[in-house]
């Protein structure tokens, strides 16, 4: 579907997006810094505490969505049933944590703190999750071994705006002018020519996934409850996929 068709059918597309829960698994390769690693904890405890980034704002994902700060405010104040899941699978055996074992909130980080070389900051949706072997031993071990490097939010759209990089589309171009300056990966937005600005959404769950459409969703800490020193990500010192490489892969996935 070209941009003219997207603008023409904007209302229908918005209705379709709102009608479905978005599980933001990746359709393109993630820009995970090659040296962003988690040290493997050296313990055999049956309970660990994990700090996980579930979603970040100001970043264009592989669904052509850009989430903006404040989109979770209303939802987090109302929804007490948020769950930490394994790969968006809402079954009892796939729950990692919920209820008293899970605290969901937003926190501002610089991109550098998350391992990315973008200027400025992002508002992250963060889960402080107490993971017990009796609840999901497989995922506890995946976290302990440092294998969970990406997360994904299961959400429902509430408010979204089509933004188009073309002056012939009045309101849509105004939205581009308003929101584009806040995007960290501008070259990705430039290559597509439009994006969906998501300003409000309902968080249903957050999942550990092999690859998320929002690539800046790492595990930040792993520790035992009684330990005072967390096992944290190491500061990045190497390289990652360049923006140009990611754009080329994304364009191939979107348009082929």
Give short descriptive properties of this protein:
256 residues, alpha+beta, 6-stranded mixed sheet, 5-stranded antiparallel sheet, 7 helices, 25% helix, 32% strand, disordered C terminus
Commentary on this structure:
- The chain has 256 residues and is of the alpha+beta class.
- It contains seven helices and eleven strands.
- Strand 4 and strand 5 (95-98) form a beta hairpin.
- Helix 6 (186-192) runs parallel beside helix 7.
- The longest helix is centred in the C-terminal third of the chain and has 13 residues, at 243-255.
Task: Write a short abstract of this structure.
With 256 residues, this protein is an alpha+beta fold. It has helices at residues 3-8, 10-19, 73-78, 133-144, 170-179, 186-192, 243-255, and strands spanning 21-23, 47-56, 65-67, 83-86, 95-98, 102-110, 121-132, 151-164, 194-208, 219-223, 231-232. A hairpin with an 8-residue loop joins β4 and β5 (95-98).
Largest sheet, described in full? 6 strands, mixed
Which residues form runs of ≥5 with pLDDT under 50?
Answer: 235-241, 252-256
DSSP strand count? 11
Q: Structural class, from helix and strand content?
A: alpha+beta
Rg over C-alpha atoms, rounded to the nearest angstrom = 18 Å
Overall 3D form: elongated
Number of domains: 1
Instruction: Give the SSE order as H and E letters.
Output: HHEEEHEEEEHEHHEEEH
Beta-sheet strand percentage? 25-35%
Roughly what is the average pLDDT, rounded to an integer?
Answer: 87
Number of helices: 7
> Could you tell me how far the N terminus lies from the C terminus, measured between alpha carbons in angstroms?
11 Å
Fraction in helix: 25-40%
């Amino acid at each position: 579907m070209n941009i003219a068709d997207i603008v023409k059918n904007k209302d229908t597309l918005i209705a379709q997006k709102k009608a479905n829960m978005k599980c933001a698994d990746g359709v393109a390769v993630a820009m995970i810094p090659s040296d962003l690693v988690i040290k493997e904890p050296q313990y055999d405890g049956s309970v660990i505490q994990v700090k996980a980034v579930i979603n970040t704002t100001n970043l264009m994902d592989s669904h052509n969505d850009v989430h903006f700060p404040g989109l979770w405010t209303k939802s987090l104040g109302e929804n007490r049933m948020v769950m930490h899941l394994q790969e968006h699978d809402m079954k009892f055996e796939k729950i990692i944590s919920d209820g008293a074992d899970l605290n969901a909130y937003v926190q501002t980080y610089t991109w550098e703190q998350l391992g990315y070389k973008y200027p400025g900051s992002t508002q992250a949706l963060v889960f402080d999750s107490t993971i017990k072997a009796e609840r999901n031993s497989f995922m506890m071990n995946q976290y302990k071994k440092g294998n969970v490097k990406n997360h994904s939010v299961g959400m429902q759209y509430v408010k979204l705006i089509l933004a188009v990089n073309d002056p012939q589309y009045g309101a849509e171009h105004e939205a581009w002018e308003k929101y584009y300056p806040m995007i960290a990966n501008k070259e990705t937005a430039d290559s597509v020519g439009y994006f969906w600005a998501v300003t409000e959404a309902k968080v249903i769950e957050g999942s550990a996934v092999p690859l998320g459409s929002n690539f800046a969703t790492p595990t930040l800490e792993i520790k035992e409850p009684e330990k005072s020193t967390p096992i944290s990500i190491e500061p990045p010192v190497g390289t990652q996929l360049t923006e140009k490489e990611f754009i080329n892969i994304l364009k191939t996935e979107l348009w082929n």
